[in-house]
Amino acid sequence: VLSVMLKENSPLPQKVIEKLSEDSIILAFDYGLARIGVAIGNTVVKDSRPLTIIHWKKNQEKWKQITQIMEDWKPALVVVGVPRHKDGAPNSMTSVCENFANQINGRFNVYVARVDERFSSVDVEEGADDYIDDLAAQVILEQWFRENFIDNVN
Length: 154
Known about the structure:
By secondary structure, this protein is an alpha/beta fold. It has helices at 2-5, 14-19, 59-73, 94-108, 120-125, 133-148; strands at 25-30, 35-42, 47-55, 77-82, 112-116. 40% of the residues lie in helices and 22% in strands.
């Protein structure tokens, strides 16, 4: 049973835990005003990989791409990174990312977990010559697995 693998202090609501199976797909988003990094993982190996980077200028094109990803993968849960200042205080993107998380929940009727992403981009910036948004989403998802599961392989 999946709930045995969850940490006792996991903030997931019981109804979400009941929907998760041992092979549920989880998507993570690293939201930005020009690009959105996407990573995918599952509850079998509790690991993740970069999936794609959504480049967008208009809201309509952003949601078209997100809808396609959601339909293709049908995640049991979505994780959204929420940035903050180093001291934990909200920054200019905190409410923007919270709003994005709420929109994902409303549009797709899927539970959205939030992860403090203060260090996700920092973790992958060194040596990055290209866009790193999908790698940042991967770090966000791996952090979510570490925070919620007992037997994580990472």
